[in-house]
Amino acid sequence: MNPIETSNKKTFQKSWLDDPILKIFVEIYPNDSSKPSKLQCKICNKIINAGKSELTKHAEGKGHIKNMKLLCSNKKINDDFTVNQANRHSDKVKEAELHLCYFFAEHNVAINIVEHLIPLLQKLFTDPKVLADVTLGRTKCTEIIKNILANKELDNTVSELRVTPFSVLIDESTDITDQKNLCILVRYVNRRKGKAETKLLELLRINAAEGTAEKLYNEFKKYLESHNIPLKNIVGLACDGYNLMVGVKNSFYSHLKKDVPHALLIQCICHSAAIVASKACEELPRSTEEILRLTYSYVSGSAKDAKY
After folding, report:
1. Which of 70, 116, 161, 272 is buried most deeply by CB count within 10 Å?
2. Which superkingdom (predicted)?
3. Is 231 contained in some domain?
């Protein structure tokens, strides 16, 4: 090679990239990266000698300017398309939110469940095809709850009660069909979750004519034994102050105490407070009760009087 040609050969200077025009399109030619003497225009895909004058000349050429305008035009189209897509997505999200709000208002659904429903829907329906194939009506939903979910929940609760101390919360009432309903709730510490939980165990139906304390307790005991739940795991009983439940000689609690001597009794606080208030009122003068009644009657008669 001629020495003169070698000395005149131009090489790329990194400082040229400080030029805001050149840095847009200049890149080093791949096969000439050690001491680059040739560069490539990213816009025109053309090889250029590594001289600043050559780069400036190429940047001012008609072909390069035309390609730059075309690139800017395409970029604007792409940006507009992206913005339109984002706007359409935002509109669809707002429309979905409005439909959900309308659904809650139309069917009188509790607003508090919104914070739980939306995360559930997002978790279940990541695939639109799944949502499209879901079929769920009132009958199917009822049967799933009664025959699948309820049984599964009962199995989980029973398995905990077999090995965990628990308290029993019981209340009984008689409906218009002369059936006595014995509602049984249990409260225990869930070992897996590490927190106290209160669960409905069963709602026993008993003939009101046979609704004695002994009958209620025997039905309760029979139910626990049928599910292999040890009576000794009971640590306490919570109920109202009715004699049928807490009487000294013949009550639900007296029968429970025979089988579970360590069981504690906690009577209903509201029922106890009502008895205390009733007894306390008997000690007040009659005039005090009359003044309270008249005051309430006057104030509750109209909103105008209530202001005073």
Report:
1. 161
2. Eukaryota
3. yes
Q: Residue 84 domain-assigned?
A: no
Other C-beta atoms within 10 Å of 41: how many? 20
pTM, two decimal places: 0.57
Q: Is residue 235 part of a domain?
A: yes
- 165, two tokens: 């101390």
Any domain includes 248: yes
Residue in 175, 230, 240 with CA at minimum distance from that of residue 206? 175
Q: Which domain holds residue 193?
A: 149-267
Domain count, the chain: 2
What secondary structure, in 3-state letters, does 125-170 show?
Answer: CCCHHHHHHCCCCHHHHHHHHHHHHHHHHHHHHHHHHCCCCEEEEE
> What is the tens place of the pLDDT at every residue in 256-301?
999 999 999 988 888 788 888 888 888 888 888 788 888 888 877 6
Among residues 209, 200, 146, 149, the alpha carbon closest in space to that of 174 is found at 209
Q: Best-predicted range by mean pLDDT among 32-36, 41-45, 214-218, 302-306?
A: 214-218
Q: What are the CA-CA distances from residue 138 to residues 26, 120, 177, 275 (Å)?
A: 68, 20, 27, 45
Closest CA to 233 of 303, 292, 302, 186: 186
Are 41 and 64 spatial neighbours (Cβ–Cβ below 8 Å)?
yes
Angle, CA of 79, 81 and 87, to the nearest 5°: 105
Q: Token pair for residue 298?
A: 């006057």
Q: What's the whole-number average pLDDT of the chain? A: 80
Please list, in sequence order, all residues whose beta carbon lies within 8 angstroms of the beta carbon of residue 138, skipping any fewer than 6 positions away: none
Domain end among 249, 267, 285 = 267
